[in-house]
Amino acid sequence: MSELSVHEVSKLYRGTARGGGFTLALRKVSFELKQGEVISLIGESGSGKTTLGKVILRLERPTSGAVTFGGKDIATYSQRGLREYYRFVQGVFQDPFSSYNPIYRADRVFDLVRDVYFAHVSGKDWNDKIDAALHAVALNPGDVLGKYPHQLSGGQQQRLLIARALLLDVRVLVADEIISMLDASTRVDVLNLLVSLKRAGLAILFITHDLSLGNYVSDRTIILRHGAIVEMGATPEVFGNPQHDYTKMLLSAVPELQKKWHHTALGPVAMPVSPGAEPVVRRDLRALLGGTRAVSSGKSAVALTLEPPVLHEFEPGHLVADAE
Amino acid sequence: MSVTVANLSVAYRSHRGDVTAVDGVSLTIADGEIMGLAGESGCGKSTLGNALIYLDPRMKVTEGKVALDGRDLPIADSKAMRPLRMTEVSLVPQYALNALTPTRKIRRLVTDLLKSHGVQDRDEVLTEMKRRIALIGLTDDVLGKYSFELSGGMRQRVTILMSTLLNPSLLIADEVTSALDVSTQRAVGEMLLEFRDRGYVKSVIAITHDLSILAQIADSIAIMYAGRLAEKASTETIVNKALHPYTQALIASLPEVGVRHDQTTLTGIPGRPPSLVNPPAGCRFRDRCPFAVAKCAETPPFEEISPGHQVACWKVTKEASK
Fold first, then answer.
1. What is the ipTM of this complex?
2. What CA–CA distance (Å, rounded) separates B215 from A255?
3. Which of A88, B43, B195, B246 could cysteine-pair with B39, CB 3.0–4.6 Å?
4. What is the DSSP code string of B68-135?
5. Cβ partners under 8 Å of residue B124, min gap 6
6. What is the pTM of this model?
7. Helix axes A245-253, B182-197, angle to 10 degrees
């Protein structure tokens, strides 16, 4: 059953004072998230992946298109309806420390949930509920309750926030770069936690720029570029048999322990004739990767249109976009 | 030997007493070597890197010496260090955005930098800068921009350009790839390789928590744990034949492309590093180590067990001496 469906969602941001104009953060993105499914949303910085997470959490309103949950457009929720929505759909973000108020104890995040959703639950039941949630994220209550945020490690902080989401009847979790700030040793624990939550039926949108992490946890993968989907399908197929040049370029740049990048020396670069003159040879390191140029060299580099590239079905369930 | 660090200890002053963040570290880096320095957050890797160029007022060197190209590096004496910064030792700080003043254009930042380091022929250096800008695939217009007008990857590359402009002997690159996405990571990584190959920098210490990046660019890797070195060897040895249990656990916790949760379950390292305020005696990895024995209550020596491969672990030392 589809829990959450994103239908042709676009988002325009007004540009900053200097550039003016608009930034196209999302261009008609559509997909469905099913129960017990993990989708990794992969893209470089500026590809719109965080914006998509925010739209799903209704922290941003889409310029056009709709997100529906249980068949209902989330934009139509009243304040009360929104509160119910957040009972089922929750987000966890990149920097765990900034999700806490440093002058209160970390478990205050639980009290806030109780005030809004569980005001009538007795103290004992509430404590049992917290213990169960902490147990689910493999935290020992004695280690974390009553501590201030700075006394907890990044992994503990992040797991505490996931436990907070589990106190609710959460069915969809938007996990935006939740492990990129964690050390390798604790990172894996949080990843494995996501896998066990998924097995318990939770739908997870795992937003990341790290392809190997995305590959490890997800059932399906969506590759986002300039706000549009360029490739989407079952994770083993997208990673095992990437079709879009952009996906191939991303995969070729992943640092792997056993495989070295092939570094080609750049060769001589001519001196400009006089100071200030244009250099003669101009080469982009990225061009050496054989792929297309990535987004970060400026939005003007690629003329964008709102209409995303057309997706074709390459094999069942594996969609690939035309080249732009 | 380009860089020699001998028994270096660096402490932070705190109201609970000194916190020794770098504890008796000895290592050497050859000319043209890129040494990776890896470890968990709080292990002292950034402190070690910073100590080689700038001790902030909270830090003090409690022990040890550093030599660069055969001459002593007066790291404890900030005044004596001043003429050596940029020219002999240079740093690419952890956050490139914070490193570039938002109120000055890049060109102005560069000329200010050259002025403050007493460079006479600034035009020539600027021409060289433009040449290098072209080399890494940017255009001259970056000089006329403010830092906030550049993307993260461009900012990072501009920061590296500025840090290496006067061809320092030693470049300390602190987490230069961490905030970037994979394609930009690769561009920045290859930029370091290219600069080393061209002799813009002689030796590099690349500090990161990401071992897979180091596997790409580093010649050797040093693993640090709770203020001490755990293991140092060539990249190939660390990746394939690591001996210290901590290094092995770190490597095992890395997901590789192609590994999926339904086939292989990765394992993390249980527990946390000890607090450095009053560190326990003996091996500091003991509490998390699956092989810990009674002997581990004593501090293991950081010993060379085969040429170029040093390890601080009793288990390894014992096996090697058999």
1. 0.76
2. 8
3. B43
4. ETTEE--TT-HHHHGGGBTTTEEEE-S-HHHHS-TTSBHHHHHHHHHHHTT-S-HHHHHHHHHHHHHH
5. A275
6. 0.81
7. 50
B267 — phi, psi (to 5°)? -120, 140
Contacts of A300 (CB under 8 A, 6+ apart): none
User: A104 touching B, CB under 8 A?
Assistant: no
> Are A275 and B123 in contact (CB < 8 Å)?
yes
Select from A184, A251, A279 the Cβ nearest to the Cβ of B253: A184
C-alpha dihedral, B241 to B242 to B245 to B250, nearest 10°:
-110
Best mutation site among A189, A285, A302 for testing chain B: the one with the most B CBs within 10 Å? A285
Which H or E run includes A290? none
Q: Which residue of B has its CA nearest to A209?
A: B181
Give the C-alpha separation, B260 to A18, whole Å: 45
Q: Do A187 and B154 touch (CB under 8 A)?
A: no
SS3 label, residue A241: coil
